[in-house]
Q: What sequence folds into this?
Protein backbone atom coordinates (compact mmCIF):
# COMPACT_ATOMS: atom_id res chain seq x y z
CA UNK A 1 0.00 0.00 0.00
CA UNK A 2 1.17 3.51 -0.80
CA UNK A 3 2.35 5.26 2.36
CA UNK A 4 0.78 8.72 2.73
CA UNK A 5 3.30 11.41 3.58
CA UNK A 6 2.71 12.82 7.05
CA UNK A 7 2.00 16.55 7.16
CA UNK A 8 5.02 18.57 8.26
CA UNK A 9 4.15 21.01 11.02
CA UNK A 10 6.35 23.64 12.60
CA UNK A 11 5.66 24.38 16.27
CA UNK A 12 6.90 27.83 17.24
CA UNK A 13 7.29 28.72 20.90
CA UNK A 14 7.20 32.44 21.62
CA UNK A 15 6.45 32.31 25.36
CA UNK A 16 3.32 32.68 27.46
CA UNK A 17 1.93 30.87 30.50
CA UNK A 18 2.00 27.53 28.71
CA UNK A 19 5.78 27.37 29.15
CA UNK A 20 6.12 29.26 32.42
CA UNK A 21 7.26 28.17 35.85
CA UNK A 22 7.06 29.89 39.21
CA UNK A 23 10.23 31.71 40.21
CA UNK A 24 11.39 30.15 43.48
CA UNK A 25 12.11 33.55 45.05
CA UNK A 26 9.45 35.90 43.77
CA UNK A 27 6.80 33.22 43.02
CA UNK A 28 5.94 35.15 39.84
CA UNK A 29 5.40 33.16 36.63
CA UNK A 30 8.17 33.53 34.07
CA UNK A 31 8.87 31.82 30.71
CA UNK A 32 10.85 28.54 30.60
CA UNK A 33 12.91 27.30 27.70
CA UNK A 34 11.35 25.08 25.07
CA UNK A 35 13.01 21.76 25.88
CA UNK A 36 11.58 22.00 29.41
CA UNK A 37 8.17 22.56 27.86
CA UNK A 38 8.39 19.58 25.49
CA UNK A 39 9.40 17.23 28.31
CA UNK A 40 5.93 17.70 29.76
CA UNK A 41 4.13 16.58 26.58
CA UNK A 42 5.51 13.18 25.54
CA UNK A 43 2.27 12.74 23.54
CA UNK A 44 3.74 15.01 20.84
CA UNK A 45 5.85 12.08 19.66
CA UNK A 46 2.72 10.01 19.00
CA UNK A 47 0.95 12.43 16.67
CA UNK A 48 0.63 11.41 13.04
CA UNK A 49 2.68 14.37 11.84
CA UNK A 50 6.28 15.20 11.19
CA UNK A 51 6.72 17.75 13.93
CA UNK A 52 9.60 20.18 14.11
CA UNK A 53 9.92 22.87 16.71
CA UNK A 54 11.69 26.12 17.15
CA UNK A 55 11.76 28.56 20.02
CA UNK A 56 12.28 32.28 20.30
CA UNK A 57 15.68 32.89 21.87
CA UNK A 58 14.06 34.83 24.68
CA UNK A 59 10.47 33.66 25.21
CA UNK A 60 8.26 36.46 26.46
CA UNK A 61 5.16 37.12 28.46
CA UNK A 62 2.94 38.31 25.63
CA UNK A 63 2.22 41.57 27.44
CA UNK A 64 5.68 42.50 26.15
CA UNK A 65 4.74 41.83 22.52
CA UNK A 66 6.03 44.62 20.29
CA UNK A 67 6.10 45.43 16.59
CA UNK A 68 9.54 43.81 16.43
CA UNK A 69 8.24 40.66 18.12
CA UNK A 70 5.38 40.35 15.61
CA UNK A 71 7.80 40.96 12.73
CA UNK A 72 10.21 38.33 14.06
CA UNK A 73 7.39 35.79 14.16
CA UNK A 74 6.27 36.70 10.64
CA UNK A 75 9.84 36.42 9.35
CA UNK A 76 10.22 32.98 10.92
CA UNK A 77 7.04 31.73 9.25
CA UNK A 78 8.05 33.31 5.94
CA UNK A 79 11.43 31.56 6.06
CA UNK A 80 9.74 28.21 6.61
CA UNK A 81 6.59 28.75 4.57
CA UNK A 82 7.47 26.43 1.71
CA UNK A 83 8.91 23.71 3.92
CA UNK A 84 5.91 23.09 6.18
CA UNK A 85 2.22 22.34 5.66
CA UNK A 86 1.21 24.46 8.61
CA UNK A 87 2.31 26.35 11.70
CA UNK A 88 1.30 26.19 15.35
CA UNK A 89 2.32 29.22 17.38
CA UNK A 90 2.52 28.96 21.17
CA UNK A 91 1.84 32.45 22.46
CA UNK A 92 0.67 34.06 25.69
CA UNK A 93 -3.06 34.52 25.73
CA UNK A 94 -2.98 38.16 26.90
CA UNK A 95 -2.15 39.58 23.47
CA UNK A 96 -2.70 36.50 21.31
CA UNK A 97 -5.70 38.11 19.56
CA UNK A 98 -3.51 41.08 18.54
CA UNK A 99 -0.66 38.98 17.10
CA UNK A 100 -3.08 36.64 15.35
CA UNK A 101 -4.96 39.62 13.87
CA UNK A 102 -1.69 41.24 12.76
CA UNK A 103 -0.52 38.06 11.02
CA UNK A 104 -3.87 37.68 9.27
CA UNK A 105 -3.24 41.03 7.56
CA UNK A 106 0.49 40.50 7.06
CA UNK A 107 0.10 37.14 5.28
CA UNK A 108 -2.02 38.16 2.33
CA UNK A 109 -3.29 35.27 0.16
CA UNK A 110 -2.50 32.66 2.77
CA UNK A 111 -3.04 29.05 1.75
CA UNK A 112 -1.81 27.25 4.87
CA UNK A 113 -2.93 27.26 8.50
CA UNK A 114 -1.23 29.40 11.13
CA UNK A 115 -2.87 28.39 14.41
CA UNK A 116 -2.16 30.15 17.70
CA UNK A 117 -2.65 28.48 21.04
CA UNK A 118 -1.47 28.73 24.62
CA UNK A 119 -2.93 28.08 28.03
CA UNK A 120 -4.17 29.56 31.25
CA UNK A 121 -2.17 27.16 33.43
CA UNK A 122 1.48 26.22 32.79
CA UNK A 123 2.11 22.86 31.16
CA UNK A 124 3.85 21.54 34.29
CA UNK A 125 0.74 22.01 36.41
CA UNK A 126 -1.44 18.89 36.77
CA UNK A 127 -4.71 20.59 35.75
CA UNK A 128 -3.12 22.38 32.80
CA UNK A 129 -5.27 23.22 29.80
CA UNK A 130 -2.09 23.45 27.71
CA UNK A 131 -1.79 19.81 26.68
CA UNK A 132 -5.20 19.57 25.04
CA UNK A 133 -4.73 22.95 23.41
CA UNK A 134 -1.38 22.05 21.82
CA UNK A 135 -2.36 18.55 20.76
CA UNK A 136 -5.66 19.58 19.14
CA UNK A 137 -4.10 22.67 17.54
CA UNK A 138 -1.48 20.42 15.90
CA UNK A 139 -4.13 17.92 14.81
CA UNK A 140 -6.25 20.65 13.21
CA UNK A 141 -3.22 22.23 11.53
CA UNK A 142 -2.33 18.84 10.06
CA UNK A 143 -5.82 18.02 8.77
CA UNK A 144 -5.85 17.83 4.99
CA UNK A 145 -8.31 17.11 2.21
CA UNK A 146 -6.98 15.96 -1.16
CA UNK A 147 -3.46 16.60 0.06
CA UNK A 148 -4.16 20.24 0.95
CA UNK A 149 -4.67 21.77 4.41
CA UNK A 150 -8.33 22.45 5.12
CA UNK A 151 -7.58 25.64 7.05
CA UNK A 152 -6.12 28.50 5.07
CA UNK A 153 -6.15 31.28 7.59
CA UNK A 154 -4.78 32.56 10.88
CA UNK A 155 -6.73 31.05 13.79
CA UNK A 156 -6.77 30.73 17.54
CA UNK A 157 -7.47 27.34 19.10
CA UNK A 158 -8.44 27.51 22.76
CA UNK A 159 -10.53 25.29 25.04
CA UNK A 160 -12.08 23.03 22.38
CA UNK A 161 -12.82 25.76 19.85
CA UNK A 162 -11.14 27.04 16.73
CA UNK A 163 -11.74 30.71 15.94
CA UNK A 164 -10.79 33.06 13.14
CA UNK A 165 -7.94 34.94 14.86
CA UNK A 166 -8.92 38.43 13.75
CA UNK A 167 -12.46 37.99 15.15
CA UNK A 168 -11.36 37.17 18.69
CA UNK A 169 -10.57 38.96 21.91
CA UNK A 170 -9.49 37.70 25.31
CA UNK A 171 -12.48 38.14 27.55
CA UNK A 172 -11.66 36.00 30.57
CA UNK A 173 -8.44 35.84 32.55
CA UNK A 174 -9.68 33.23 35.03
CA UNK A 175 -11.46 30.57 32.96
CA UNK A 176 -9.92 28.07 30.56
CA UNK A 177 -12.43 29.34 28.05
CA UNK A 178 -10.55 32.61 27.58
CA UNK A 179 -11.54 33.80 24.09
CA UNK A 180 -14.69 34.96 22.39
CA UNK A 181 -15.48 35.63 18.76
CA UNK A 182 -18.63 37.69 19.25
CA UNK A 183 -19.40 38.53 15.64
CA UNK A 184 -18.28 35.43 13.77
CA UNK A 185 -19.06 31.75 14.41
CA UNK A 186 -16.28 29.41 15.54
CA UNK A 187 -14.67 27.38 12.76
CA UNK A 188 -14.35 24.03 14.51
CA UNK A 189 -15.14 22.33 17.78
CA UNK A 190 -13.16 19.50 19.35
CA UNK A 191 -15.26 16.87 21.09
CA UNK A 192 -14.93 13.13 20.59
CA UNK A 193 -14.31 14.13 16.97
CA UNK A 194 -13.26 17.48 15.61
CA UNK A 195 -16.25 19.02 13.84
CA UNK A 196 -15.37 21.51 11.14
CA UNK A 197 -17.79 24.25 10.10
CA UNK A 198 -16.37 24.57 6.62
CA UNK A 199 -19.01 27.07 5.46
CA UNK A 200 -17.33 29.67 7.64
CA UNK A 201 -13.77 29.04 6.41
CA UNK A 202 -11.83 31.41 4.18
CA UNK A 203 -11.06 29.83 0.85
CA UNK A 204 -7.43 29.23 -0.09
CA UNK A 205 -6.21 32.08 -2.21
CA UNK A 206 -5.21 31.44 -5.80
CA UNK A 207 -3.03 34.53 -5.72
CA UNK A 208 0.62 34.51 -4.74
CA UNK A 209 1.39 34.90 -1.05
CA UNK A 210 2.37 38.45 -0.21
CA UNK A 211 3.88 39.22 3.17
CA UNK A 212 3.40 42.77 4.40
CA UNK A 213 6.25 43.06 6.82
CA UNK A 214 6.21 46.75 7.55
CA UNK A 215 4.02 47.85 10.43
CA UNK A 216 3.28 51.46 11.22
CA UNK A 217 2.51 52.10 14.87
CA UNK A 218 1.77 55.82 14.66
CA UNK A 219 -1.71 54.98 15.82
CA UNK A 220 -3.76 56.00 18.83
CA UNK A 221 -7.13 55.09 20.24
CA UNK A 222 -9.79 57.41 21.51
CA UNK A 223 -12.35 55.70 23.70
CA UNK A 224 -15.35 57.93 24.27
CA UNK A 225 -17.11 58.24 27.62
CA UNK A 226 -19.70 60.68 28.88
CA UNK A 227 -17.77 63.67 30.19
CA UNK A 228 -14.67 63.33 27.99
CA UNK A 229 -13.20 66.80 27.59
CA UNK A 230 -11.83 68.77 24.69
CA UNK A 231 -8.22 68.82 25.93
CA UNK A 232 -8.08 65.03 26.13
CA UNK A 233 -9.64 64.57 22.67
CA UNK A 234 -7.31 67.18 21.19
CA UNK A 235 -4.19 65.64 22.69
CA UNK A 236 -5.06 62.20 21.34
CA UNK A 237 -6.11 63.34 17.85
CA UNK A 238 -3.06 65.54 17.45
CA UNK A 239 -0.43 63.30 18.99
CA UNK A 240 2.79 64.17 17.11
CA UNK A 241 3.22 62.10 13.90
CA UNK A 242 -0.08 60.32 14.35
CA UNK A 243 -1.46 58.71 11.18
CA UNK A 244 -4.66 57.07 12.39
CA UNK A 245 -6.97 56.93 15.39
CA UNK A 246 -9.34 54.12 16.35
CA UNK A 247 -12.44 55.88 17.63
CA UNK A 248 -14.32 53.67 20.10
CA UNK A 249 -17.88 54.89 19.96
CA UNK A 250 -21.13 54.00 21.70
CA UNK A 251 -23.74 51.50 20.50
CA UNK A 252 -24.00 51.35 16.73
CA UNK A 253 -21.21 53.87 16.18
CA UNK A 254 -22.61 56.91 17.93
CA UNK A 255 -20.66 59.85 19.32
CA UNK A 256 -20.94 63.32 20.80
CA UNK A 257 -22.60 65.80 18.42
CA UNK A 258 -21.19 68.93 20.13
CA UNK A 259 -19.51 71.27 17.62
CA UNK A 260 -16.14 71.20 19.48
CA UNK A 261 -15.95 67.43 19.04
CA UNK A 262 -17.04 67.29 15.40
CA UNK A 263 -14.76 70.21 14.54
CA UNK A 264 -11.73 68.49 16.08
CA UNK A 265 -12.46 65.33 14.10
CA UNK A 266 -12.96 67.39 10.93
CA UNK A 267 -9.64 69.15 11.49
CA UNK A 268 -7.88 65.82 11.98
CA UNK A 269 -9.42 64.37 8.79
CA UNK A 270 -8.41 67.49 6.86
CA UNK A 271 -4.86 66.80 8.05
CA UNK A 272 -5.22 63.28 6.57
CA UNK A 273 -5.40 61.57 9.91
CA UNK A 274 -7.55 58.46 9.46
CA UNK A 275 -10.39 58.00 11.93
CA UNK A 276 -11.72 54.43 12.14
CA UNK A 277 -15.00 53.99 14.00
CA UNK A 278 -15.60 50.80 15.98
CA UNK A 279 -18.16 50.22 18.70
CA UNK A 280 -17.46 49.73 22.39
CA UNK A 281 -20.12 46.99 22.36
CA UNK A 282 -18.62 43.54 22.12
CA UNK A 283 -21.40 42.36 19.84
CA UNK A 284 -23.02 44.19 16.96
CA UNK A 285 -21.68 46.67 14.47
CA UNK A 286 -21.30 50.30 13.44
CA UNK A 287 -23.90 51.84 11.15
CA UNK A 288 -22.96 55.46 10.64
CA UNK A 289 -26.13 57.36 9.82
CA UNK A 290 -28.51 55.12 11.75
CA UNK A 291 -28.80 57.75 14.50
CA UNK A 292 -28.36 61.48 14.34
CA UNK A 293 -25.37 60.98 16.66
CA UNK A 294 -23.44 59.23 13.91
CA UNK A 295 -24.67 60.98 10.76
CA UNK A 296 -22.08 63.72 11.05
CA UNK A 297 -19.26 61.20 11.46
CA UNK A 298 -20.16 59.70 8.12
CA UNK A 299 -20.48 63.14 6.50
CA UNK A 300 -17.00 64.30 7.57
CA UNK A 301 -15.25 61.12 6.41
CA UNK A 302 -14.92 58.91 9.49
CA UNK A 303 -14.44 55.34 8.25
CA UNK A 304 -16.79 52.66 9.56
CA UNK A 305 -15.06 49.67 11.12
CA UNK A 306 -18.32 47.69 10.90
CA UNK A 307 -18.09 44.76 13.37
CA UNK A 308 -14.31 44.67 13.75
CA UNK A 309 -12.73 43.95 17.12
CA UNK A 310 -10.42 46.54 18.63
CA UNK A 311 -7.50 44.12 18.13
CA UNK A 312 -8.30 43.84 14.43
CA UNK A 313 -8.83 47.57 13.95
CA UNK A 314 -5.45 48.44 15.48
CA UNK A 315 -3.47 45.80 13.61
CA UNK A 316 -5.27 46.37 10.29
CA UNK A 317 -4.26 50.02 10.52
CA UNK A 318 -0.66 49.05 11.33
CA UNK A 319 -0.42 46.79 8.28
CA UNK A 320 -2.36 49.00 5.84
CA UNK A 321 -0.38 52.11 6.84
CA UNK A 322 2.80 50.05 6.63
CA UNK A 323 2.10 49.60 2.90
CA UNK A 324 2.76 53.31 2.38
CA UNK A 325 0.01 53.74 -0.20
CA UNK A 326 -1.53 57.02 -1.30
CA UNK A 327 -4.10 58.44 1.13
CA UNK A 328 -6.94 57.51 -1.22
CA UNK A 329 -5.76 53.90 -1.61
CA UNK A 330 -5.24 53.59 2.15
CA UNK A 331 -8.82 54.72 2.79
CA UNK A 332 -10.07 52.35 0.09
CA UNK A 333 -8.25 49.41 1.66
CA UNK A 334 -9.68 50.20 5.08
CA UNK A 335 -13.16 49.91 3.58
CA UNK A 336 -12.22 46.49 2.15
CA UNK A 337 -12.40 43.10 3.85
CA UNK A 338 -8.82 41.80 3.76
CA UNK A 339 -8.86 38.61 5.83
CA UNK A 340 -12.46 38.02 6.86
CA UNK A 341 -12.08 40.53 9.70
CA UNK A 342 -15.47 42.24 9.25
CA UNK A 343 -18.89 41.71 7.78
CA UNK A 344 -20.31 44.45 5.58
CA UNK A 345 -23.93 44.34 6.71
CA UNK A 346 -24.39 47.90 5.58
CA UNK A 347 -22.08 48.82 2.72
CA UNK A 348 -23.20 52.40 2.60
CA UNK A 349 -21.63 53.41 5.89
N1 LIG B 1 0.68 36.76 30.82
C1 LIG B 1 0.58 35.58 30.01
C2 LIG B 1 0.95 35.96 28.58
O1 LIG B 1 0.13 36.48 27.86
C3 LIG B 1 -0.79 35.00 30.08
C4 LIG B 1 -1.00 33.75 29.23
O2 LIG B 1 -0.13 33.23 28.59
O3 LIG B 1 -2.12 33.23 29.24
O4 LIG B 1 2.06 35.74 28.17
A:
Amino acid sequence: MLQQKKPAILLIYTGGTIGMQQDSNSHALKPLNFSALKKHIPELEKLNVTLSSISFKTPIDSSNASIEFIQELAALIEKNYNIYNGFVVLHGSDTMAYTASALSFMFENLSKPIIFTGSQLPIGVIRTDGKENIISAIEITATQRNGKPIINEVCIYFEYKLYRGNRTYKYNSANFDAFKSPNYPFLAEAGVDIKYHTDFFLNPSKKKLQINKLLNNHIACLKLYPGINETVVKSILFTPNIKAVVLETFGSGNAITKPWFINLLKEAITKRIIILNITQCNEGFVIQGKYETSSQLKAIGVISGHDMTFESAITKLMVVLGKNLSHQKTVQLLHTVIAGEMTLYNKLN
